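User: hey, got a sec? need Aminotransferase folded
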Amino acid sequence: MPMKDSWPAFQPPRRLRGIQKSAIRQLFDRAPTGSINLGLGEPDLPTPEIVRRTAARIVLEEQNGYTTHAGLPALRELIARDYADLSPDRVIVTAGSQEALYLALMTLVEEGDKVLLPNPGFVAYPAIVRMAGGEASFYRLPASRDFAFDPDEFRRRLDRRTKVVVLTSPSNPTGRVLTREDLIAIARALDEIGAWIISDEIYRELYYLPERPPSISEFYERTIVIGGLSKALSMTGWRLGWLCGPADVVSSALVLHGYVTTCASTIAQKAALVAWTDEASRARAQIRATFRARRDHLLEMIVDRLERRAIVPEGAFYTMLDVRADGPSWTIAEHLLAHGVITVPGSAFGDEAEGFLRLSFCLNEEALAEGVSRMKSAFQSLRRNPA
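Assistant: Yep! Here you go:
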């Protein structure tokens, strides 16, 4: 009988090798006690009272066993109303938008398929593509254009091997929004090859433009939409998201969802039924107004106190601080961490964002001011002692 010390050491499967904890979590885990967290994208505002009140009643008064795999029919009907020509049977309620993203990529991507991702883009995209066996390629959202969409660059990156394209609007990390003209250009480009779109719209309700950003699903049939309540209603821990799209894709994704999760939290689903009421709409508008005020306050301090520039976000709760004159983004993020401020190096989101830091304004104005004050001291010390 072989001895235990002769057993082969654990090796993760090839598809998982090299996938590490995200830069966001790495920096957060090493942050000194008392750090100001400008790195994590999690609203600090309370979940609206109507949702909390409803959830409390549900816990006390109702049985809360499994729902159907796809989720409560009444909730799927409410979600479907947000998208043109969508029926409730084409909606899956998921354990947050992250599960919806995983389901979409695992359902659409086969070994060797080419998946076109935004650069810069959310850190999970290339990791999940790799888990699915796909080959990640990238279209640039050029820093020279303040990370706005470039239709010519997008077309250049497409080819007949492109199976899936991922869009994010508003963007994580830049806060930029794809315009109606951008989406029409994307739809026309993809009509030529028939690629699928996964449209990550988790930040769609957090916008600072006169109207809610449009969805590519209005212009392109082969679209799978990812959404949820985590960001717009400060419900990150409730794990309530959704996936919706063409019936055949949703049907296949539902099988995977059933094995991975069974169903999203029944309590969260029932509480989410009130998220489409007038009271919740007012709360959503107030949350938007709060983040807009924080955005404006942070951008003003960046100019006046840090004497630097940042991207003006049209949605979400991030801005990109330009530190190209100071050094590599990871080096600068490490330096700021030593001064008690957590940021995220732009390089974590793709090489197009090298030289920038993602700053989140998920903190009240007093905390934002303290964070900027520490950053000012850190930049002053960097001038005295260059890296």
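Quick note: The chain is about 40% helix and 15% strand. Let me know if you need anything else on Aminotransferase.
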